Amino acid sequence: MSLSSPPPILSVRPSRALVDEAFEVLVENLAPVSPFTLRSLHHSEDGDDWEAYGHYFSDHSGRVSVSEDLSFGGTYSGMEPMGLIWSMRPVPGSRTGLRLRKKDVTTPMLITVSLYNGHEDFRGNSPLVSMVTERWYMGPGIQRIEISDEELRGGLFVPPGPGPFPGILDLWGGGGGLLEYRSALLASRGYVCLALEYFKTGQMKSTDMSFEYFEKAYRVLKDHPQVIPDRVGIISLCLGTIVTLSLVAESSDITASRLLTKLDENQTVPESLRLFLLAFIPASLKFFRFVFLFLVVLNKPYRSSAVKVFPFPSQISKTMDAAGKGHLLTRLDYPDTGHLIEPPFSPHCVAGNFMVYSSNEKVIQRYGGKTKPHSDAQDDSWRKILSFLRRHLYCSHRARM
């Protein structure tokens, strides 16, 4: 570009948004039909740099639109409006086994979008123009309440407004620790969410994993003054799914219980219970199949003899069909996806650091999947989860019958 040329104009709209919202990246005042690279860069709370980039050609008017134009290479290809986010990866030379997760949800993820000349060696050059964007898990007005005592540990997120709201108990997997970003995002969509910590990172063995602990969490959520008592659900991943299924089969406090058991022909399944099941099949590890389950419990009394909990998608589907209640189960299958299904546009983690609780040894655990199918699954499943929540937690019981 000549010195007399007007400087390029880079815009990201909206520049401040929730992480599940798409943005538009537009560059103007460029030399026509010329190569440019758009790059996103994020410095994580762990001190690591993550990037994504796409190679573009400006059109005849000197314009590049990420939403409308093709990327001809980089960390993503094709027309991918959010490729600058979901294809993020650690910059070359970073530590191995990294996973990008937000720890402090009261602050935004700051992402710098920059424009570079050409398609080669852009890292060694100064950007032509840059802009910082904010990506939030916690929307305006959300109240975060820390729960930390001898009986319960977690973070409670309450939406703004008079309420009351439906409630969601949020359970994570075997990595341990307190993960709040999914709860913060769901609270931003109108649900009181309790992110529950049930053991410290790498300390599964030292924690009391009794039903009483999870039942107490359920009661605390259900009895909160901002929660509609008969509109409470559980969302879970990995180990949290096994806990959820066990609670449903064994708990006397969660009254719509003992569904996912081996049903006798005389047993029934209540219409008030709805299941949302995502079966993700990694591309590289066909045997590594875990369930991401959303379970809505609407407190309708139900009793049967608990026999055995089935933690796999096909078994759950067969159980529901055998009971004549297959219509209560929403199941989505996504081929070529990995184990860690996050909110939309979250970078795909193929393998990450994991602490083995029995030996305190750090290993690299492979989660599988292919980046583009995995990212598409995250986006599609999240939209369907939100739709499922609105239908079964916000609609009246009469509307569901």
TrEMBL record:
Residues 210-257, 314-394 form the BAAT/Acyl-CoA thioester hydrolase C-terminal domain. Belongs to the C/M/P thioester hydrolase family. The keyword Membrane applies. It comes from the Eukaryota. GO terms for molecular function: fatty acyl-CoA hydrolase activity. Keywords: Membrane, Transmembrane, Transmembrane helix. It holds the Pfam family BAAT_C. Residues 20-148 form the Acyl-CoA thioester hydrolase/bile acid-CoA amino acid N-acetyltransferase domain. The chain crosses the membrane at residues 275-298. One of its GO terms (biological process) is acyl-CoA metabolic process. This is Acyl-coenzyme A thioesterase 1-like. InterPro entries: AB_hydrolase_fold, Acyl-CoA_thioEstase_long-chain, BAAT_C, Thio_Ohase/aa_AcTrfase, Thio_Ohase/BAAT_N.
